Amino acid sequence: MSSYLDKAQNAFKSNVQGAASRVSNKRTFAAASASAPSPSPASQSTPSPSSKDQKRKRETLPVVYSQPSETGYGSDSYTQVTYIIEFLKKKGEPKSFKEILEYMSFMGLPDQQKRTLAAILRKHGRLEWIPDPKKKVQAWDSGKFQHRPIINVRTKDQLLAYLQRKADAQGVSVKELKDGWPDCEDAITELEKQHRLLVTRTKKDGHARMVWADDPTLRHPVEPEFETMWHRIELADPDDLVRKLIEAGQKPASEDPSKRVKAPPKAKDKKKRPPRKGGRTTNVHMEHLLRDFDHLRG
């Protein structure tokens, strides 16, 4: 038993001595490395293989590869439709899908993107798709496209026919006419001189704003002498006319509203609050102090 304990004690001592020697070696190595002078530039230019091994290796950063661009074509195609509408609007005639692709420089697009663009153009409200009469079964790129204006009028005769078909007396905006007929100003002026159009114009520039249908058969020439006589007739003064109508017991339609005698406004009756009933009596315990005892004197 004693021999076993001796062996254990000796092993423990040897372990302690070994640990102490290792700690002392680390301290001496750290002191030596701190006191060592920094290498000169010449020695840095030609490092030895052993110094390379001692240098700390830098951590390698993860490689970031370039991400692919967006492959979706939906939003981009809707943006390009605006330019296609302006192109067809300026041309004023039907154009094939191939001609549209050439104008937009889209000939190199993938077929899937071309099919998407063709489907969008066919369903667009400002464009009209004309099928190819030579084909019984239409392909995705067949037919032609043309601009569909707000008002489908491009000539003087079409404008007069459009105004005659109107069921109401509302005028037609020249701005909407220019959407499909940009140079309609000269035609409107010519029809106005022929008394076939009634036109309202802007005060600043004199441009046509609204147009209505006119009937030239309702206009009759009048001799200048009668025109002069007509303009010589003096109109009655509005104030005298109103006074004479009132004296005759009639109510003038042109009476000045500001001169009417207005009845004074009635004052609003304020609601009176009813008196409080059944209120709670306080200070009941002091009633005997407030009694009158004069009748008990003398």
Spans where pLDDT lies below 50 across 5 or more residues: 64-75
Estimated share of beta-strand residues: 5-15%
Specify the biggest β-sheet.
Answer: 3 strands, antiparallel
Fill in the CATH topology of the domain at 74-147: Arc Repressor Mutant, subunit A
Mean pLDDT across every amino acid position: 79
- Named at the architecture level, the CATH assignment of the domain at 74-147 is Orthogonal Bundle
Q: N-to-C terminal Cα separation, in Å?
A: 129 Å
Shape: flat
| Strand order within the widest beta sheet | 1-3-2
Structural class: mainly alpha
Fraction in helix: 40-55%
What's the total count of β strands? 6
Short account of what is shown:
43% of the residues lie in helices and 8% in strands. The chain contains eleven helices and six strands.
General description of the model:
This protein is mainly α. About 5% of the residues have low confidence. The strands form two sheets. A three-stranded antiparallel beta sheet has the order 1-3-2. The chain has a three-stranded antiparallel beta sheet with strand order 4-6-5. Among the domains are: about 70 residues, Arc Repressor Mutant, subunit A (Orthogonal Bundle), CATH 1.10.10; about 60 residues; about 30 residues, no CATH class. Helix 4 packs across helix 6.
Task: Give a topology summary.
Elements (H helix, E strand, L loop, with lengths): L1 H34 L5 H5 L3 H6 L19 H18 L3 E2 H8 L6 H13 L3 E4 L13 E4 L8 H10 L6 E2 H7 L4 H9 L3 E5 L6 E6 L10 H9 L5 H10 L51
Antiparallel strand pairs: 1-3, 2-3, 4-6, 5-6
Helix pairs in contact: 4-6
